[in-house]
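thought: fold this chain, then report.
action: predict
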Amino acid sequence: MSALRLALPSLLLLWFLRRALAERVFLLGVPFLMYMAKATFFDRLKPFWVPGRLEPADHLMLWLVVVWLLYFDLLLPPRRRTVRRPAPVFGPRVVLPEEGVLLGLVALTALVCLLTVLRTGEPLAALVEAKGFVYLFAGYLLLRGILCHAGRESTVRFLVALVAVNTVAAALFVLHQGLHMGIYDVTEYQVITFMGQRLTRSFYFMPPLLGLAVAVSVARRAWSLPWLAVFAVTVAALWVSYTRSLLLIAVVEVAVVLGLRLLRGREAGWVLRRALAVASLVAVFAVLAWSLLPVQSRYLAARVESTTAAGSVLGDTNLQNRARKLTTTLAWVRPEGVALGQGFVNAAQEPRAGDIEWMSADLVWVPVLYSLGLLGVAAVAALFAAAVWRAAALALRPPPRAAAG
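observation:
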């Protein structure tokens, strides 16, 4: 296994770099492999993780900047740059409607950061606590420049490459968590004894792009054998994750993809065939899983059944736990700061900020509510809504007609 843990990330890195010789957008494979570090063993390639005192998010952002500089040849004199035509390095100047929502979130974050500095008198500490939002905005700007310059076709090919890497990671995840082959040498998040068998649940090395893999594979115009394999392996990874929310997201994704194709018109036949293919593949997989992995499958079924064991979904213990965390977070915010939150404070300035850090791992809305208040929650929700609107608008756009001969 030690050879696999060293060879796999090296091969994936070389593959992306080789593709980047023809299409520079594949340089983004480096930060994305860092994002998938635990799932692909990329954390074993130490040159990408120095200096060691930095956090993983710092390393990822640093390499995203490096990729952006390399993509546009900004480290070379202008006369030696291969990007000949003038290229806006942050993308076109036109601001899309959904980007207006993002700018509003940027303004809110800047305001809250300023108010935090005025209240605490520690600007550096406030910036350190706000760096997650800063990285979000800066990362979007850098990706916007690269992807707008690369164009649609290159971007789609890059997304397909990410799905391929995620599928490799998903296969390893199935071998480890489903078949207990010990692929990853980390401490398990949970160890459960069910029906006399030891089961594990871990999220550290779970492939993070399972949702993308489901959407891309279902939306493919034609299903070849490789794409059937991608969908099947992704379903297997979802199955042995024992995570109900991921299963629900996958079902919603399939329904949305097929629904949008149906609304676009003249594709009812394709939608019906793809729906039957998806249903058939899932049914065959379920039969095989119940035969080959009976204990794991029964455990998943037990978790699904427990969702409504109390009489309704709202009675689910995990959902109630998350609701309590939100209620507790709101109670911890200063009464006069409910709208704008507690600000970007650390545990030394406000002891409860330390509790917010570990609570955030279970619910992303916790740090947003604590730091940016109800206005921040509304802004992030509006950002998601705007992204959904843009995605639906693009999906419903009629396909371009072939040029007349």
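thought: worth noting. DSSP finds 15 helices and two strands in the chain.
final: tokens above.
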